[in-house]
Write a structure and sequence with these properties.
mainly beta; 8-stranded mixed β-sheet; 5 helices; 119 strands; about 0% helix; disordered N terminus
Amino acid sequence: MKRLYTMLLGALLPLAGWAAKDLPYASNLYQDTEWTTDNANNDAETWVDWKDTGTSSYVNSKNQHEGKRYKWVSANAADDWMISPALNLVAGKEYKVKVYMQSGNFEEALRVVIGTSANVADLKSDGIEIVSEKGKSIQKYLVGTYTPTTSGEYYIGLQACSDRDKYYLYMNDFSICENVFTPGAPTGLTVTPGANLALTAKLTWAAPTTDIDGAALPDGATYDKVTIARDGVQVAELAGTATEWEDDASKGLASGKHIYAVTYTISVPGTSGAKSAPATVQSPYIGPVAALSLPYRDFKQMADQDEIDTFWHFDKGTASNPDNHPKGSFYSGALNSITYDPSYSYKMDDWFISPAFKFEKAGVYRVQVKYMTYAAGRDCDLYLGTGILKEGFTDKIGEIRPTSTTSLTTDIIFKITEPCEKSIAMHWFSSSTSSSTFYLYNFEVEEWHLSPAAITDLTATITDGDKVTLAWTNPATDNTGATLTDPLTKIEIYRNDTLIKTLTDGLTPGAAATYLDVPGADGAFTYKLIPYIAETPSDGTPMSVNSGWVGDETQPLPYITSFRADSDITQSMWKAADADPDETPGWVIPMTGSSAFPTLTLPAGTSSYDDYLVSPLLNFDKAGYYLVRIDAQGVKNYELEVGTVTDKTSTETIKNTFTVIGKRIVLAGLSYSSTYDIYVYISEPGKKAIAIHTPAKTTSGNTNYLLSSDKAPKITNFKVQYQAVYPKTPAGLTATADASAALKVTLSWTNPTESNLTGVAPVISKAVISRKLASEADSKYAEIKTVTEGLTAGEAASYVDDAVPAAGIYTYKVVLEGPDGVQGVTSTATVETGWVGPAKTLDLDTDRDGWNKDDWTIFNGNYDTMGTGDPRTWELNSSSAYITSTVSGTDDWLFSSYYNFEAGKNYYFHIASYTANPGTKLQIKHGAAQKWSACGHKICDLTLNGEISKDKWQHDMFIVKAVAPGAEAQADGEPETIDGMPVYTVPAGAGVFAFHLEYSIGSQYTGGSATLKRIQATEYVQAETVTVSAPDDKAEVLLGSTLQLTATVAPDNAFDKTVTWSTSDAETATVDEQGVVTGVKVGTVTITATCGAVSGTIEIAVKPIVAETVTLDITEKEVLVGAEFKLTATVAPENVTDPTMTWSTSDATVATVDAEGNVKAIAVGTATITAACGEAKATCAVTVKPVLAETVTLDATEKEVLLGEEFKLTATVAPDNVTDPTVTWSTSDATVATVDDEGNVKTLAVGTATITAACGDAKATCAVTVKPVPAETITLSQETIEAVEGQKVQLTATVGPDNTTDKTVTWASSDETIATVDETGMVTIVKPGECDITATCGAAKATCHVKAVSGIMGIIADSLDSIEIYTLGGIRIADTTDLVPGFYIVRYVRDGVTVTEKKRF
């Protein structure tokens, strides 16, 4: 509650806490004090009351133009809550919650949450969201339902949760009711307090015509009753037809403000007794206001128009506008006042009446009024009285008569004769009808004291040249205007605010008094007198008077006057001298007023002058140049001379000692003064006055005259001061940082050839050099050197500062001084260096180091702002730099710290970025300073395209190479690359890199957004070598085991030492990404470690796990020949790489062993069986004994065969396991048949023979009979012969089978006239024709059919005429006798078909 209310209105205490609301409940949220606001994120904005009095589109379906509004914040998202009063909800009932939401072209978000606590933290953690909405251009009701599980008090939270940097979010028309038919609230509820502070109030309203959702009530609706509550307590129940009600004290009404609620009970078909949403309103103040205690200083504490209407009252007089009752309007802005605008058509006659004050005792009181009016003639009388109408005020206590249109304060002192409660009325009136706004800034009332009236007629007169006589009248009244009844006790006299005398005699009220003061020094003095009653001085500021000049008038320099006679004590020392006595008095010097400008008197007709306006004597205390500055105005082209005067005793001495200085002043004829500067050189110190002379002639020789109608010349300002001569600015000042990064700067400049005075050459006595950090204020300049040599005008000068305290950017200031040591602004030059000294080593990683605001500098190049007035540019938080700029011409810069880009070195840049506006262009630039103008070198452009990687960030990597300054221009075309990354160049040395935001889509520039998540920039040293080593230099690994290899990348400062591992044969050994080798199979493999473009290798041998011991299950064995048994070998250890056992025998003729350990006894004797696994072995001694044959059986006992036939006899020895089953074969007649050791029988001649097989003593025989072999077949070498006459063909006959005993062949021709055959089978062609040649051997025969034809060179054709022979070149050969050996083309007809072929003859 406001402070005044808490002081006065005990009746308002019930408003301090609100009872829980029964449902239905509704509020439009505007100025609803039952709702609380919680700025949960504690930023600069939250929900505020909003009301639009025009035609804003922000209205709901009920055409409401008021509610709550949230304004965006650029730095963070919204988290701002409106919390409802407690609401009574019943378990199991479904309730409907509704609120109207409106947003513009920016996406806004609103949540509706319900919980059992009004604490925002509880609503966030335990509350239940009923409904929410997020979007652009929303104009709708948010509607949701909720069913509580327990009955009790609940709270609704309305949360603004829009993202950062959006716009306005509006809401109003909140309601909650049971989700059944609910009538809407009554409309138009107003409360009118009783007239003249009567303790009554009249309520009026209109019955609801819709339900709570705005739908028309159904036909048949009846209004059952109306219920009225005051401050949450029901005070009346009326018939359903009532639309007004009057409240008064008899109904419990007390003075104060109250909350009224009107609720209807309505029945509709199907539903009876439905309770409407309430209409609520806060009343104005009702009833009388208790008198206020003094002192009263609460006027400026009033917060709004409502408080004014509560405590202050307005009435109009007979002259005021009858249709425009005077009404104060409260201004809460810079004026913080009550204002009143009277009508143009009526005089001001209006009363402003205060609340009643408690004057608890008789005595003196003061009213202090602070006010302002914009027009003269607005006066005010103050009255004491009672009531709130002008008729109650007749006791006048003072008056206000504004003396200017500025803010004024008036004190009214008055007496109260007995304790009382009275108000004070201000009656403002005017004599004219013009309108002028009146402002009342403050109004205070307090108990005061009785004091004498101030002295108002003090004068000061110079006596005898060095004394001052003061004269006055003692006050006869007190500060209330009444005749003094208490005596004056003293009068204090002050000279220049110093008490010089206290008078205690001659204090009769109303008597004249004097005092003679002897100052004892030259000068002008200000006097004031303060009278006292007892120890109480007179009120207000005492009157003060100036004495004029006392003693010697000579003034020190500089001398300045604006001719204010009321404050300039030298005004009286100015002198006007008329050197041509005439009727025109010449210069006139007013001696009173704030603008007492010396002015030439205009003539009655036409006149020229010879008059002087002479200043006080001035002390020119040294030789040199002096400035005489005169501000003057007057008729155009009128001329004035300026000169010095050494004797101003008389007009004659003035004229005789007047010496002209400088050029004449030619007036410009303007309505305001122009300034004229004249420089004079004073060669000898002394006292001189400056005189302004009106010459009779102009410089061109014409009469220098004035007309009576001319603008009179006047002097408005005058100044004389010593003028130091100092050099102008040093030219071409440069500051060059040392190229080797030493803390040294060389300053160079050219000394000026001009001084501040035109035509006066400079004398440069010294150059003062100062230095500060460029980032510091000018107050931080520190002088570092005074140079006194090499300062000749026009020559070059320099200074080397080799004591720069620390690396950085500095600003140097060079100030040239003349002999007077005075520094002129034009003698100063400044210059800013580039980076001086060693800059930071470029090793930046914001992921590692964070975004430190001290490391970055932001510049808003287009100076755009957000709605809050804050710059719309780059911002930094702990994890990123970001910007959102939606205006065209985006020009925003983010500069890095200063880093040293060392010549010849490469630097790796990694930029992780994101944009919500694909197409945003981000320029990366380089420069010597953190200024856009210094960053003209573009490194590269990045075009941001939004989410393009799994982590949503766009990643750009590139290399920056530092090159010699001047060689940094980027080459055309695609840049070179290093390790697949593009390479850009920058000049070597200290500098910054910068991110410059632009945004373009086509030719449209509309702003953009960018977030920089990570900036990594560091020296990029490429790997030169990779060395791979194994522990203890043992490059081997056991099969199935692992070996950790180490890859050493050189140099040590290589940027990326990451290596990738690979194997030449993964089937022999594998290697993982950590360099761990695993043996897969025995062998040798090459392992390679690669870093960038270089790699290193090592040969690794994969070795097996060898056996240590072999054990056999049998170590000795005795067996018969042919016996078999198995040996089992066990190898240790169990994980031997190759457990393969190798078996061997010492004598394979005795015993053999296979790969599985199976032993076979072969022959009698001993043998050692060995099982070996690697170097490990075990043996078994085997002894073999023989098995003797018992019988021999042949597979045939007799055989009849053809001569030459061979066959095999098989002997079977029994038993099967005979040790030596060797069979000995023999024949009885080797001429007929033979047999070898294997039983193979060969027949040699016809006859008989016996074959014998013997094994030891056992034998068997076979009788063999041999017969001759007959011929069975004859095969000829050709079955047909085609030949020409005279041709011979050899036939051969093959007799079968091959072993035919007699192969003799006989030959015969079936027609020897055609072909003959001899005994060898040679066939001779006799003539053309056909016959058969027959070969005979025994019973076997074979024939060959012969076809004899005519032919050329062996060509068989149907006729010789068809044979044509050609060379390969296509020439036909007619005579075959001309043929020579070689290839020819032959064409002939055979069997009716033309044949073409290539033949060799």
